[in-house]
Structures are given as structure tokens and as C-alpha cells.
Amino acid sequence: MPVPQQRWWRIIPVALIMYTIAYIDRTNVSLALDPKISRMMGDLAMDDERKGAAMGIFFFGYLILQIPGGYLASRWSAKKFVAALLVVWGICAVGCGFAMTFGQFEIMRLLLGVAEGGVFPAVLVLLSHWFPRQERARANAMWILCMPISVAFSAPPTGWLLSHWGWQMMLKLEGALPFLWLPIWLYFINDHPREARWISAGEREHLETTLRREAGDVEPEQHAPFWRAFVHPVALLMMVIYFLHNCATYGCMTFLTEGLQGSGIAPNGLIYGVLFAVPYVVTCVVMIITSASSDRKGERRGHLAAVYLLGGVCLIASVSLAGGAAHPSPLTFWSSYALLCLAVAGPFAAIAVFWAIPTETLPKGVMGAVMGLVNAVGNLGGFAGPYVVGFFKQRTGGSVVISFTILGVGLIAAAVLCAWLPKRVQARSGNLPSSGQDPASC
Fold it and tell me: Computed over its alpha carbons, how large is the radius of gyration of the chain?
């Protein structure tokens, strides 16, 4: 019997839109903090260094629920846990629009990070309950498309709202979106196929049997101590890779509009929103191609390294070509912009393949908690990246050449480190998977 396909049209779209709403809370602030189209930096007395800190403080709060989020999703209910977080992060997102000082805004962003922190590992666990191994990267990619989609579709209206209503009203209106999606999430989502009435009994049994068999491939006969998962070389390596990944992702996002300087384009919110969105449209295409190829070939490490290398090389080439010139020629500007589009696509395209690895190589009992830990530590890059860019930009006359080059080198380093990730699932044993260096041990 073929594996049921209704899951793709029920689980994925609802999860995608839910996390799209969450990601809008990062995109809209990136645009609001551009002084050419918004008064936010002036109203809150912020310079470039504070701008980086304001974006990054979110990720310190994001740490708190990563491990508990993965654990609760695995042992309790991903559906109920995410539903509770929808309410809390909606309150915090709206609260950001009421901030009157830099300190108040930092506090609200920190609390927003706490509220959204458990969502990512919880949804990864949810998808592992619905999609077998041969579909895992595609399922992750279809859901994680929410990240570039949220930018591509929200940046133009966000720019328009900033131009016509101001940053505070924009944050309040877009911050209220989780409340609208909560009833849809509760109605459409089930934690496991066995709870779903919208698939046939035969399809349900086929899916449950397949997932149980795959879990048996990585579940040790003697459960290793829970704490060992957190010090295993694979988990530690993934933390480093994901940290470098997020440095580039959020460092570029926060200061992306800096690349438009000298373009001759008028500082119009809607136009800047469109140009901000284009790299993320490119990202959607690259994500789909990469994840489909990874699933078809049953290979993860090479695909992961390739897109990290693409992102790093293109980012360095983009800023090197522009050279920090105040008035580059149109050809130079658009060539640099095209390379920047590919640079942004690199780390995003890696996400789906990256998160397929722990679901295929870690025992079910520790998978959720380990993914939470990797996501927590890795997302510190969401603070470090914007802060590094802001720090060097303020000390180099407003140029992002040095800081973006540092981010690009980080992505190239991540590509090299991918060689030590596990190749494929290890057969039953009492230990967690090895690092994959030796083919015989993979």
C-alpha cells in the first residue's frame, strides 16, 4: 500500500503558516530598524551596535525552552505545547509595539524569544511522527520554507505599513496574527497518525508500522544514559555548525538593506521591502531543489556542505565586488545583489537537510531534547551575527565589507565541518551513532 499523501496537504501547510507568522516577528524588526524608512532607531535612541543587540537579544530568550520544548513534544504533545506558545508569543509580539524606550523593547524581544523558543523543536518532533525517513528532508524543507516565505511575502506589506502607519502600529498589527491561527492549528493538527480520523485505517497502520520500524533502527536495545546524548561528538559538532549557520543568517538579515546603499534607489518602504524579499524568493527555489536531491540520493553531508559553501563564497564575493563604494556602477551593484541573493539562500537551503540528520541518527528517547539543545546553542549565532556586523559597521565608517566577509568565512568553515557528520543511520547497538568518519562505523 502506498504511503498516504494527505499528510502533505494537512500537516505541512498548517505548520508552515504557523511558523511563518513566528518568523515575521524577526523580519519586520529588520526593516523597522532601517533609519531610511522608519523612525524606530531614532525613537528608541539606538545606534548600529544597539541595533545588533536589539535583534540578537531575542535569541537569549530563545534558549530557555529549546530542550524543554523538544522533551515535552516527545513525551507529552507537540500540538498542545505549540498551541500554548501561540498565545504567549502573540501577547509578547504585540507588546513590542508598545515599547517607548530601548530598554522596554529589549525586554519584550527577550520575552518573545522565550515564547517562540519551544516551537521549532516541537514541530521537528511532530514531523518525525508523520513522515518516514525517505521523506524527512522534503517534509522539513516544505515546513521550513516558512522562513524565506515569511520574508518574501511580508517584507513588502511591512514596508508599506512602516511608510504609512509607523513602526509601532506595524508591530502591533503583525504581532496579533498568532491569535488568528490558533483555532486552525487546534483543528487540523494531530500528534500521531493513530489519532487522526482523516486517513484510512489501512493508511494509518502502514504509516505507524513504517515509523516504528525506522525508530527501531536507531533505538538502542539498552538505553544509554540521557545525559550522554548532550556530550556526544555528533551533538557537539552540530552545535558548532548551527552556530556559524545562524551567525550568517541573522547577520545578513539584520543589515541586508545596507546592501542597497549607493544603488540610486529612493528610500521608499515598499520598494525596499520588495528588494529585501527577492533573495528569499531565490531561497525558496534553492531549498526545494536541495532537499529533493538529498532525499532522492539518500545523502545529507555533501548537500549540506555544498549549500554552506555556496553561501560563504557568494557572500564574500558580493561584498568584495561592491567594495564598500558609496556610488557603485549599476552593473556592479546588481552583480553584487545577485551574489547576495545566492549568499542568503545558502544557509536557508541547509536547514531542512541539517535537521533530517538527528531524526535519522539519534534514539527516539533523546532525539527531541538533543535537537532542542542544538537549536538553543546554535541560535546564539542569532545574537552573535547581528552584533558582530553592527560592531564592525560602526567602527569602519558604515561599511559591512569586513563583517560580511567574517560571516562568509564562517559558512565555509561550517561546510568543512560537515565532513564529520554521520553519513547514515547506524544499525541497532547500545550506543549513539558515531561521527561518521569511518565508513565502517556509519
Answer: 21
Q: State the Cα–Cα distance between residues 64 and 268, nearest whole angstrom.
A: 38
The domains found in the chain, sorted by start residue, are 7-192+201-215+228-441 (1.20.1250.20)
Tens-place pLDDT, residues 190-208: 998 888 888 877 778 878 8
User: Which pTM was predicted?
Assistant: 0.72
C-alpha–C-alpha distance, residues 280 and 87, integer Å: 28
Instruction: Identify the helix (H) or strand (E) that includes residue 438.
Output: none
Contacts of 180 (CB under 8 A, 6+ apart): none
Helix axes 401-417, 301-322, angle to 10 degrees: 160
Candidates 293, 22, 1, 5; CA nearest to 130 is 5
- What sections of 33-77 are H helices per DSSP? 40-43, 48-62, 66-72
For residue 112, what is its C-alpha cell? 518573545
Cell numbers that stand for 219 in this block: 533505538
Residue keyed to cell 536557508: 348
What is each CA distance from 75 to 369, 371, 442, in whole angstroms?
Answer: 10, 14, 28
- The answer to whether the CB of 319 falls within 8 A of the CB of 335 is no
Mean pLDDT value of segment 117-135: 84
Q: What's the CA gap between 185 and 173, in Å, rounded?
A: 20
Residue 399 has pLDDT above 50, yes or no: yes
